[in-house]
Design a protein that fits this description.
With about 110 residues, this protein is mostly beta strands. It has 2 domains: about 1-50 and about 55-75, SH3 type barrels (Roll); about 80-105, no CATH class. Helices cover about 0% and strands about 45% of the residues. The chain contains no helices and 10 strands. The protein has strands at about 10-15, 20-30, 35, 40-45, 55-60, 65, 70-75, 80, 85, 95. The strands form 3 sheets. A 6-stranded antiparallel β-sheet has the order 6-3-2-1-7-8, with no helix packed on it. Strands 4-5 form a two-stranded antiparallel ribbon. Strand 2 (about 20-30) and strand 3 (about 35) form a beta hairpin. The chain is elongated and about 55 Å long. It binds zinc ion.
Length: about 110
């Protein structure tokens, strides 16, 4: 699956219980079309104490959400935007903000 979201992007959640939250993309699962966003869709996991890990109890970890539930936030206009593509002078094809035309560093 071809996704326009990359790890390290700032995204805003546009659907579900975390709608409106912003965070950084920690992981992208291209095959499933899902992303893990810092602080979003936190799920509680029961952590059993082990020999190496003394902390026990409930920890919260971000769970994955569908990539269609997030929009990339442009670093320049700071608005959620759809992503277009543009070709730079050196031939590199990069993503760009549909709103302001800003090219994103990573393709
Ligand atoms: Zn922009």
């Amino acid at each position: 699956m071809k996704l326009s979201v990359r790890r390290g992007d700032t995204v805003v959640v546009i659907a579900g219980k975390d709608r409106g939250k912003r965070g950084t993309v920690e992981r992208v699962d291209r095959e499933k079309g899902r992303v893990v966003v810092e602080g979003v869709n936190l799920v509680k996991r029961h952590q059993k104490p082990t020999a190496n890990l003394t902390q026990s109890g409930i920890i919260e970890k971000p769970g994955s959400i569908a990539v269609s539930s997030v929009m990339v936030v442009c670093g320049r206009c700071k608005e959620p935007t759809r992503i277009g593509h543009t070709v730079l002078a050196d031939g590199r094809r990069v993503r760009k903000c549909i709103r302001c035309g800003e090219a994103f560093n990573q393709s």
